[in-house]
Amino acid sequence: MRLRRFSILLLCAATVTAQAKNADQGESTHRPSIGLALGGGGALALSEIGVLRWFEENHIPVDAIAGTSMGSIIGAFYATGKTPDEIERLMNDQAITQVFRLNPDFRALSYRRREDRRWAPNALNVGLRHGVSFRSGVLIDSGLNSFLSENFLAYGSDLPFSDLPIPFRCVATDIAEGKEAVFRDGSLVDSVRASISLPGIYSPAEQGEHLYVDGAILENLPSGTLRSELHPDIVIGVSLPLAPMEKGQGNSILGVLQRSFSVASWGNELRSRKLADLVLQPETTGMDTGSYTKTKELVAAGYASAEKQRSSLLRYRLNDVDWAAHLAHRHSLLRPTPRLLAGATVTAPNPALRQAVETSLRPITHQPLDLKKVEEKMDDIRSDGRYDAVYAVSVKPSSSTQATPEAQLNVDVKDKTTGPPFLLLGANLAAQSGVPARATLDTAFLYQDFGGFGSEFRARVSAGFQTSVGAEYYRRITAAGLFVAPHLDFNRMPVYIYTDQTRVAQRLSQSLGGGVDAGFTFKRSSELRVGWQERFQRWKTDTGSDGLADFSGRSQWAGVRYRIDDQDRALIATHGLRAQASAGYLYSTVNSRNAPRVDFAGSYAFTAGKANLFSMGLEAGTLFNRNVADPFRYTLGGPSRLSASAMDEYRGTDYFLVRPAYLRRIASLPAPLGQSIYVLAMYEAGQMRAPNFNTITRQDGYLGLAAETPLGVITLGPSIGDGGHRKFIFTLGRFF
Fold it and tell me: What pTM value is reported for the model?
């Protein structure tokens, strides 16, 4: 603390001395003004941090900045007072993961959308509002918007960019009007967001009638904008080279589009280089526009490019006194960060939604401004996948009675442009050696706010090994989470009957029924239901014989069910609990005694270190040894449920399964995929009981690979169990 105070005193003393000197000599005449043009280039633009570091170490002043695309982020950071070291820390792996996302974070989803992600983790989301349509960007922008809002908090309201600590401009392309757009004032967050909207990667930034995409299309190196807008005496450009075409890049649609964009922006960059007095060209061999995990190497490359031009740059060097004055002047223009959230305004498509959002924001208004709480509220709005929501923090000027300025939160909620309704298209595959594979194409139709705000209609259809159709109308009764849900279900699938690993019969199971539930959804992670259902069951032999008669008839069940899904991922969870518990009564059931039914299934995941993941799974169920017919019994066998046994090989009335697993991460995919490849080792122990049958107890082990992919989790490997049970397993889609 004493050292910091001493440094401030020295800085103030130097400033006073410099001001006195400049008053005599005139600062505007004793050195030329210097402008810095920062070009785009994806991850390669991180090298511009190294250029800024070299400038600071060698006292090269920057009096104006213009940036395009990633250069606009780096430039805006520096223009608002962040040091090169602070900028490098901001552009870390965590930030990259936040900014580059294919889908919303699993924990930010509502409970019902978590159900959908579990059911079809590889689903393609198709909008049906205006015919068949897809979202306009591969990546979602909620993480990017949050990152910008957090780091430009004091600059979210309307302000002239010439009044920043360093005057600033950023460049975008207005595809609505077909021309370049230069942002001179307004919200710094919105302006930078527009400049980095890479076509096809992020959705265009919409502002009124304008649609903005990446400025690199028309001016990747904004030396012309810098010279015409801010009029520096000297323009220094940081220009990234055109990377060599990657092997095989021309063999895919995305590869061709990416290369075409790079070549187009390279053409205008060559023209822009001629408008600069000096051009720095970082050497980025071995790195490309996606090398976001190589920040240190890229920063070093930028530093080296400035060092290479040392003799040309040092002519602009300031002495220690003038440098201190330059820094003090920049520091005097910093805007204080607002501490209090004074209020919130909401725009929304309908009054019910606006009122719901306003109600949710009340607890955080007139309180200290906490962006994490604001983000949580935004997640609540977006969590159902029905609406897009963005926010801006405008700064209210401080008065004589205010020590610091106050903030006003402005929330803009919009309908998704593509739906509802939505169609989810996915697939699931489970295959074992010696057993028919189970593959299904899974489709869900989703219509949110159907019949009222917060209500929805959802229908699911699976076709393949199993044919199933399910429809539910979820009617929300209160905003707190009370609901009622009538539902209908149809299911048809072949059932294989085994004796001592030998398939002795194939049956057909068909059921049709429905019911009604009432319950309560607790925030975004759990749900409690009380319900009744009735169905008509048909059970007939197709081939072979299991010695039992065919039958058909009715069945009824009433009970309560609680589900919680508090894990962090729909693919391979790294921490959290997922569980389901139910208790009920099976009655008026064909060929069966009335029976209470209680069951539980759950898994808990946690990590130890960066690469070690542990999971503990447990299942148990009981019909209290009541003799109920096969279609209503529990089953065991198949991937992650005694993997060395055939799928559903064991059928009974009482069972348990214990499944500890260890996963070792051996590789991680780069952002935005952010997914991992694991070695998976798993032990399974289970037991199945039934009246008039011998108790079956099995143990087995599994060792294989598990990979998270955009198609879901892929697993493959062998499982060996006792009693001569062996299987090789391949799965795609859902994970245990």
Answer: 0.82
